[in-house]
TrEMBL record:
It comes from the Bacteria. Transmembrane segments: none annotated. Pfam families: DUF192 (PF02643). The lineage of its organism: Bacteria, Bacillati, Bacillota, Bacilli, Bacillales. It comes from Bacillus salipaludis. This is DUF192 domain-containing protein.
Length: 108
């Protein structure tokens, strides 16, 4: 079975510098709405100083989804994910809403 190629119909900001990767979504007060943050490189995340849940989609360097984490709550951690090169942080519920699954390919 071939992997499905999927797109995310949200505005995705890129965090690829030391500062933008470090800050991520920390201290943001309002929940994400049809937007996300793509952190490159990144194979683990923390939810310290977060005020809302998110969904996290970990990608290989070829854009394949290697892990999905739904409704990650504030003050939780995701340990390093083998083969993950980057992560996209999305509004809670997006993984289910968009039908994203491990093995799918994201076109960004």
């Amino acid at each position: 079975m071939q992997p499905l190629i999927k797109t995310i119909p949200f505005s995705i900001k890129l965090a690829d510098s030391f500062f933008t990767r470090l800050k991520g979504l920390m201290f943001k007060k309002e929940q994400l709405v049809e937007e996300g943050l793509w952190i490159i490189p990144c194979n683990s995340i923390h939810m310290c100083f977060m005020h809302f849940e998110i969904d996290a989609v970990f990608l290989s360097n070829k854009g394949e989804i290697v892990k999905v984490v739904e409704r990650l709550k504030p003050w939780r951690f995701v340990k390093p994910i083998k083969d993950a090169y980057s992560v996209i942080e999305l509004p809670a519920g997006s993984i289910s809403q968009l039908g994203l699954k491990q093995g799918d390919i994201l076109s960004l």
